[in-house]
């Protein structure tokens, strides 16, 4: 008498378990654990030494952790196997830090003859952090001057022209200040000098971004940056303080409008096509 042939798997066909669907354990998916009957929404999945586990939260806010075993859960009354969800691809930013429309894959343009000058390294780093993508696409180079005491001579040495415009960003450009008197000496039509009212570019970062209530007032005669560190009980290391401030800036929303408008004005000026 011929024996029945079951193939490599000797389990009779009528005893085989039908496969069940694998369902990604996405957040908020509501399932029931088959052994305990605990019903809840998926909170998170984790990888452990014993294998993947899932945390469920019931309608009373109670959390329980279960191993993600095959056929271990019910979804709408059907037996399923929960699996870890695939990591979502990070979405590409649609805006740059300055709020401009991002251009994926865009290459930096060859540098223009025009330039933007700022007073110091901190100013340059802040402009790069927020407008860097825009400036590379436009081919605009930002350089810092270490102060503007010699601005008229620097402008003359640059030799600005309609096709090589120069934009200058000045700190503390308010009526009656030393900076305003120096800026007034620059009258070339191919140069635009603008400024913000803050003693230092640190103040152009919104206090809320840095996690402080307000920028402290530092008595005249004291080094302003050191005085800020003292008033905020930060270590008197202005380099480290600046890195802390810079790290808090993620987009134009973290900067004061008085700086935003001036930088945008300079970019527009140096990238405008030469007339005639």
Automatic annotation (TrEMBL):
Name of one Pfam family that matches: DUF3097_N
Transmembrane intervals: none
Domain DUF3097: residue ranges: 22-85, 115-271
Top-rank lineage group of the source organism: Bacteria
Protein name as it appears in the record: DUF3097 domain-containing protein
Natural source organism: Streptomyces flavidovirens
Lineage of producing organism: Bacteria, Bacillati, Actinomycetota, Actinomycetes, Kitasatosporales
């Amino acid at each position: 008498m011929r024996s029945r042939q079951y193939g490599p798997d000797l389990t009779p066909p009528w005893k085989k378990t039908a496969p069940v669907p694998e369902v990604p354990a996405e957040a908020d998916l509501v399932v029931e654990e088959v052994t305990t009957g605990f019903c809840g929404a998926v909170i998170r999945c984790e990888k452990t030494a014993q294998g993947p586990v899932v945390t469920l939260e019931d309608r009373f806010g109670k959390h329980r952790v279960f191993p993600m075993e095959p056929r271990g859960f019910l979804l709408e009354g059907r037996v399923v196997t929960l699996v870890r969800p695939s990591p979502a691809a990070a979405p590409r930013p649609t805006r740059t830090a300055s709020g401009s429309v991002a251009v994926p894959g865009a290459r930096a343009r060859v540098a223009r003859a025009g330039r933007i000058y700022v007073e110091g390294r901190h100013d340059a780093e802040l402009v790069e952090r927020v407008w860097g993508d825009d400036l590379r696409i436009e081919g605009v180079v930002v350089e810092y001057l270490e102060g503007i005491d010699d601005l008229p001579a620097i402008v003359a040495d640059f030799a600005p022209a309609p096709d090589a415009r120069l934009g200058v960003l000045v700190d503390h450009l308010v009526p009656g200040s030393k900076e305003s008197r120096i800026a007034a000496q620059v009258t070339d039509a191919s140069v635009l000098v603008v400024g913000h009212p803050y003693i230092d570019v640190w103040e152009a970062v919104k206090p809320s971004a840095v996690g402080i209530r307000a920028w402290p007032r530092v008595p005249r005669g004291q080094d302003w940056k050191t005085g800020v560190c003292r008033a905020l009980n930060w270590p008197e290391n202005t380099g480290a303080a600046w890195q802390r401030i810079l790290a808090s800036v993620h987009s134009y929303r973290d900067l004061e409008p008085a700086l935003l408008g001036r930088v945008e004005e300079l970019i527009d000026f140096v990238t405008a096509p030469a007339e005639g």
